[in-house]
Design a protein that fits this description.
This protein has 491 residues and is mostly helical. The protein contains 20 helices and 2 strands. A two-stranded antiparallel ribbon has the order 1-2. Helix 3 runs antiparallel to helix 4 and helix 13 packs antiparallel against helix 18.
């Protein structure tokens, strides 16, 4: 069982690197190979989560070298997000079969599945490392593979969107690396627990504050929090839909998950106070909720609408972290996982509709609900979930964050949360109105049919999970409860 922790991240990275060679003569082998690897990662992460529930957090020193000299992998309650990562990646791989056979030339398929596996390994490593430099390394593995995935299908817009994404990512990565260097110069360590202990007695407020502010800004760019979101809409809307699902469900969470990892390092530092940073995060989160929803309100392209919706929902998570009390933090933690399920549902359902009809605007997709009833039903479940209506997966996280705002004596933030939900409902109801209650604007729409089973089945499974996430909403709250109690401000 101990080896499962390093292997959960290492196996997909190695398998991803080997995929082009394995599938060189037979490109069709790449997908079953990637599926087999992802199924193993899912089983391993379920086993690791079971252990953390039974025994609490545990560590694995790579090479047998204890911290601070060796590299530490650590699995705690937050790391259980690895199960959601592996599950979404597996469903995207199933969906990718018929979709990418149309979107990509056959010779490129092994490279696509290679990039997906490398992205998966980077994400698993990111949520399980206890070492600050390796947090950066895994973040870069995720980022670089994501740039390539955005551009993989070619076309007119995708390469430019990938380039813009790369520029924003490179600037934020340079800032994060600089701040890691500052912390290493101050403490002589790269282990996050060791850095936290040494910062507690450090007497250098300016560099500590610089590192805290720089890490926060860099991670917020990674998460596309307003007003640092400019790279996201084009990247998520122009990428192939399975890639859009990975980016919006998983990759943008790197920034907010990174906050959960780096902020505890500064909790005991006497030289700086976290309260002002939490206040800034709360206001930026509230601003992002409203701004993302307003941008989405005026979109006609359904993938652009979904992309702007991601900015709004990242705002909910950051608001929860910024409020920094038990219930708000619990809501943020739940919404990180549940939003991944919801947004994967929406992007894959939208991708199936675009794949089958060749259209992507609300006007052109009028009446599609009558010819693709199952896909549109799953999309409707996703819509109700992203709005936050009970009993769907979007409700528990937002409910806890609203209660956290009231606990903090900040009812204004609860009002912003509700206003954001209303705006989200308004722009998503436009989708349902066009799909179900408007006559087709084009005769060809009536000849469209449901997507192949390999695409439809993952969408339906995710829709069921959207309902399960609401009905079983207390389970993730119970799982991450101990981690929230340890988080500065969360207990």
């Amino acid at each position: 069982m101990d080896l499962w922790l390093p292997l959960a991240a290492g196996v997909p990275l190695v398998a991803g690197a080997l995929t082009p060679a394995i599938a060189r003569r037979h490109p069709g082998l790449a997908r079953p190979w990637a599926l087999a690897v992802t199924a193993w990662v899912l089983a391993a992460t379920v086993g690791l989560t079971r252990r953390v529930v039974l025994e609490g957090p545990f560590s694995y020193p790579l090479g047998g070298w204890a911290r601070p000299y060796g590299i530490e992998l650590r699995f705690d309650e937050f790391s259980a997000a690895a199960v959601v990562i592996a599950l979404v990646a597996g469903l995207v791989l199933v969906y990718s079969g018929p979709y990418m056979r149309v979107a990509l030339r056959e010779a490129r398929l092994p490279w696509y599945y290679s990039l997906l596996l490398i992205n998966l390994g980077g994400l698993i490593g990111f949520v399980t490392t206890g070492d600050l430099f390796n947090l950066f390394v895994f973040m870069e593995i995720v980022s670089v593979s994501s740039y390539a995935l955005v551009a993989v299908a070619g076309g007119r817009i995708a390469p430019l969107a990938a380039f813009k994404y790369l520029i924003a990512g490179a600037v934020s990565s340079a800032l994060i690396l600089f701040c890691i260097g500052v912390l290493h110069a101050l403490t002589g360590s790269l282990n996050m627990a060791d850095i936290a202990a040494r910062l507690a007695t450090a007497e250098a407020p300016a560099p500590i504050l610089l590192a805290l502010a720089g890490l926060t800004a860099g991670l917020m760019v990674k998460s596309a929090l307003f007003p640092m979101h400019a790279w996201l809409p084009d990247a998520h809307a122009s990428a192939p839909s399975p890639v859009s699902a990975i980016l919006s469900a998983l990759v943008v969470k790197v920034g907010v998950f990174g906050l959960l990892r780096v902020y505890p390092m500064f909790a005991a530092a006497e030289a700086v106070r976290l309260a002002p940073m939490y206040e800034i995060l709360a206001w930026l989160g509230a601003l992002s909720i409203v701004a993302g929803a307003l941008f989405a309100l005026f979109q006609q392209d359904i993938k652009l609408m979904l992309a702007y919706s991601t900015i709004s929902n990242i705002g909910y998570i950051v608001l929860g972290i910024g409020l920094a009390n038990e219930r708000a933090m619990t809501g943020a933690g739940i919404h990180i996982a549940n939003h991944a399920i919801i947004k994967a549902t929406l992007f894959l359902a939208a991708g199936a509709i675009i794949h089958q009809t060749g259209r992507r605007t609300l006007h052109a997709l009028r009446g599609v609900g009558h010819v693709m009833p199952w896909t549109c039903l799953a999309l409707a479940v996703g819509v109700f979930s992203i709005v936050g209506l009970p009993p769907t997966a979007g409700f528990p996280g937002k409910w806890y964050i609203a209660l956290g705002a009231l606990d903090a004596g900040r009812p204004g933030f609860a009002v912003v949360l509700l206003a954001g939900a209303v705006l989200i409902f308004v722009y998503y109801i436009r989708i349902l109105n066009a799909f179900y209650f408007r006559s087709p604007s084009e005769v060809g729409m009536l000849s469209a049919r449901e997507a192949p089973a390999a695409m439809l089945l993952p969408v339906l499974v995710l829709a069921v999970l959207c309902l399960a996430g609401g009905l079983l909403g207390r389970w993730p709250a119970m799982l991450i409860g101990p981690a929230i109690a340890r988080f500065p401000g969360g207990g």
